[in-house]
Amino acid sequence: MTLPVHVSVAVIGSGFAGLGTAICLKQAGRHDFVVLERASDVGGTWRDNSYPGCACDVPSHLYSFSFAPNPSWSRSFSPQPEIQAYLRRTARASGVLPHVQFDTELLDASWQPEQQRWQLSTTRGELTADVVVVGTGPLSEPTTPDLKGLSSFEGTTFHSARWDHSWSPKGRRVAVIGTGASAIQFVPHLQPDAAQLVLFQRTAPWVLPRVDRTISRFEQRLYARLPLLQKAVRAAIYSGRESHLIGFRYNQRLMRLAEKLATKNLEKQVADPVLRAKLTPQFTLGCKRVLLSSTYYRALAAPNADVVTDPIVEVVANGVVTEAADGTRSTHEVDTIVFGTGFHVTDPPVAQRIRVGGRSLAEHWATGGMQALHGLAVHGFPNLFFLVGPNTGLGHNSIVLMIEAQIGHLLKALDAMDAGGFGQLEARADVQASYNARLQRELAKTVWNRGGCQSWYLDEAGRNTTLWPTFTWIFRRELADFSLAEYDVAPRLGRGAATRSA
Q: Are 209 and 292 in contact, with CB atoms under 8 Å apart?
């Protein structure tokens, strides 16, 4: 497909955020847009994370677009292949695939003030766009620790988000580095076949039982014939998940009940008191992402598994070296290293590729951390909109809810630009500063900031630039209306010159 010379809207990424934007643009009668996708298929994080056991930790009926329900989910927590198939099917049914430019990675986006448009450089050529929508998401760029000697390792290494499907754990001595949401899903799938599995754990996570079940064919047929029933189930799940915020934000003593449940889960599966002590968290549940698994602890309690809590000091040709508190070093011989070490969340690489006046968005955010109005618009970066931007992540509910609210606000912004004849729109500095100051005050009251841990929710300065601090219905209510008073605008070229505040 030939890359267009110019479009009204360029969308970066084709995961939930990018596809949702494309579908809603089309539904709104806006057809002059393109989706730039660096891979050869849609799906975003659900395309890239194909490791064994990969599944969602939000119930299936809530982890889908409200305008594209799926009555055919096979389980209460949908596995990765089904989510990927759902995104493919939804993209095809909505007619947006002709707008997607596959194998087209954004290399640079530079604002051209004289033309009031973005100049985009991609791996397949150049184009311009009046508006750029970044839908790459926070879980798109895996991060690997800079371990001394890693390049000298003679075995196999890969990150869970770049799984090597030609590799098999059978008979292997496998090192797993990281204990996050990915690791607790793939570890139980590696352990049974591995000759030995060594988990290098820096911090023990809280793990609650995964209450998963098969959704029967009868239920699926019922949802297909009675869409209102599925909508009611979705609403019930939403209310239940929303109530979790009470413990995270308003009454953290409630987290003790969840901690007791998690502790029972640990005690039930791990009989060895030494191993159980290693796996017992030392922070308030919720401070880090709450993990769900009914098989993780059992895998680590198996005879061929070991949990190492001493820090890694280097990697050598045939293994991983750790150092105990007394200075004793141990070499753990392995032939494979699998990293479950997460993603660039508070320092998204895409921000290095977006520039205004030669200054990148990454540089702009370097001093005060990631900030945006409604997690969507950034002062100093006109006609740029982030989906799942700063402080829109959730510790308790479905991110798809936040994405849809942001898309709705984006469409209202585009309508306002058209109605007012504006060629330029960006968040006002004072409004953005006030908005983010409020978020940080509210976050200071939450378990995510006060739970006694270091997590990927926090940036290097200790600011929580990742999570939304309260109920999702409040976010959706705030974004339901669009106020030009929150933005600086400028007329389209030829209709005036001076930038003004609305």
A: yes
